[in-house]
Amino acid sequence: MRSSVLHIWVGLFISVLLILPAQSLTSEDEAMVSAVKAFYGERGGQRARDWRQLVREGQGAGWSDQEILNRVNRFFNRFHFIDDIKLWGKDDYWATPLEMLGAAGGDCEDFSVAKYFSLLELGISDETLRLVYVKALRLDQFHMVVAYYPTPSSVPLILDNLEETIRPATQRTDLAPVYSFNGQHLWLMKERGRGELAGQASRLSLWNDLRSRFGVNRLNRPKINLEL
To answer: Does the structure show a pLDDT above 80 at 21?
Structure first.
């Protein structure tokens, strides 16, 4: 008898979980989703919705920094990697997160930018984050990753679309840092240290262009459809 009652309660609990609504979005979130759906199509709108739900869920759940890093890294690393010239018809174009989600992919800068702004929204301090321009030695090409410093003197953790696992920079001997920046500052890197302050991030023209295009009214359409 007791076992039957337990099974009934378990069944009711599972039923309640199944009918719970998805993480509620704000009116601003819904406006983003609608704009992406109208511009890029149904699946683009769903990707935007999934992103906003991830952010709202994390804000409500109080995830640890490590949980935030893991979830954001996994979310974006599932999208297509493609060069700017093929996707946007430009040699170098830094897409906004909404543009990347609408297009269903991007290059290393787009992955890094989307992760960076997601981490900020989820409560990671800008002082602990850097977008790092590196030389990917095995590929013999320039590349961008996100670095997270748990403390000012810590070895940073690297979020990279080339690697599923977040690892300390000391384990990424395949990357040679060139410069890094966040929302305020620009650093020239010295070997694998934190680097030498070289001024404001506003010195970077592509960064300025990216920030000027935030919002739903400045979306660009990719040259190819990655969903075919």
So the answer is: no
pLDDT in tens, 43-82: 999 999 999 999 999 999 999 999 999 999 999 999 999 9
Cβ–Cβ contacts within 10 Å for residue 208, how many?
12
Buried b vs exposed e over 150-162: b needs ≥16 C-beta within 10 Å? Answer: eeeeeebbbbbbb
Report whether 117 contacts 99 (CB < 8 A): no
Label residue 135 exposed, middle or buried (CB < 10 Å: 0-12, 13-18, 19+).
Answer: middle
Strands 163-168 and 157-160: antiparallel
**Phi, then psi, of 37 in degrees rounded to 5:** -60, -45
> What global pTM score does this model have?
0.84
Of 121, 50, 52, nearest in space to 79 by CA: 50
Distance CA 70, CA 79 (A): 15
Please give the C-alpha separations between residue 112 and each of 25, 66, 107, 148, in angstroms, as whole numbers. 24, 17, 9, 12
Query: Tokens 């997601």, residue?
Result: 118
